[in-house]
Amino acid sequence: MQKQETLSKNQKIILDLIEKSDQPLKAYSILFDVKKKGINAPLQVYRALDKLVEIGKIHKIESRNAFVACKNSNCQVSKATAFSICESCEDVTEVSNLKLSKYLNNFADKSGMKYNKYNLEFFGLCKNCKK
Amino acid sequence: MQKQETLSKNQKIILDLIEKSDQPLKAYSILFDVKKKGINAPLQVYRALDKLVEIGKIHKIESRNAFVACKNSNCQVSKATAFSICESCEDVTEVSNLKLSKYLNNFADKSGMKYNKYNLEFFGLCKNCKK
DNA sequence: TTAAATATGTTATATTATTACACAGCGTTA
DNA sequence: TAACGCTGTGTAATAATATAACATATTTAA
Ligand SMILES: [Zn+2]
Ligand SMILES: [Zn+2]
Ligand SMILES: [Zn+2]
Ligand SMILES: [Zn+2]
Q: Are A12 and A53 found together in one domain?
């Protein structure tokens, strides 16, 4: 169990919104949606997003500048993430595959650098878009 | 051999600059550098970057919004890319590992989605920064 | 040699993200 | 309890990244 109870007001509002969406949300679309809850400025959104990413509640889809809720018991606090992205409808799914994460967590190349984090984005066409 | 000879003037100028840099360059820093060569507007830079990415001469480091030259004979035209990124000095190296690329190119999860492209970014501390 | 495709140049604007500053609440500890 | 550190909030301004729209030029290929 993670410590969920410590989320602040803004963090809760924004996590709630992202969790209710089945697709990635962009920061300014989040801002638009939470204005009715009294969150008025980009920075308020970005601060909450930063924190939520840090604790693994959400992930940033880097190639899309958008945020999704973690579907994967908070992904070792966002240290090991993988997504599949449909290039047609922009549907994004978090990939949850133990073999893959094991493989990547243990990956070491000749540089001798030891990685403590990775992010992987797969692109293709989803079932629907493949026709 | 790829068809390099077909690069346009702006594309050549910008590829040349990126190839001479050992680290990722950002679009507006490229713009600043190529002003003396008569490239004056962001769009001119972004258009060249788009094309160079498309043909696999350069890659975009998504988590950094920056561009590096391909060190890897143009990575199947940018369809399969992996990088290691030092979170301290921001040094970026293209990972060239046949087993890894084979593994990821063949990866398929239960979604049934077949991927035609991926991008992987590893994060950690490089040798120097590990002290 | 015309038409399509690709590239250029320019202006304006949209989108994404951060800096800087003031202050509030809460738990620790001196 | 007072002082402090830490985390979060609110607000304004601005920086950094990227694209739209339009006009024109150049290259390629039928
Ligand atoms: Zn996750
Ligand atoms: Zn799709
Ligand atoms: Zn490459
Ligand atoms: Zn380093």
A: yes
Task: Say how far B17 CA is from D26 C1', in Å.
Answer: 24
Percent of chain B with pLDDT over 70: 92
From B52, B69, B86, the end of a domain falls on: B69
Q: Which of B63, B84, B118 sits opposite A113 (nearest CB)?
A: B84
Count: domains in chain A: 2
AA identity, residue B3: K
List of chain B residues whose C-beta atoms are within 8 Å of the C-beta of residue A109: 84, 95, 97, 100
Question: What's the pLDDT at A73?
Answer: 78
Identify which ligand lies nearest to the alpha carbon of A52: 1
How far, in Å, CA of A50 to CA of A48, rounded? 5
**A49 is written with which tokens?**
């997003």
DSSP A61: E
Beta-carbon contacts of B131 under 8 Å, excluding residues fewer than 6 positions away, are: none
CB-nearest partner of B95 from A97, A109, A117: A109
Q: What is the pTM of this model?
A: 0.94
Residue ranges for chain B with pLDDT beneath 50? 1-4
B117 Cβ under 8 Å from any chain A Cβ: yes
Looking at B42, B69, B96, the residue that finishes a domain is B69
Residue A17 structure tokens: 């919104």
The CA B131 to ligand 4 mean position distance, Å, reads 9
A6 CA to D2 C1' distance (Å): 27
Phi, psi of B79 (to 5 degrees): -95, -10
Range of the domain at A48: 4-69
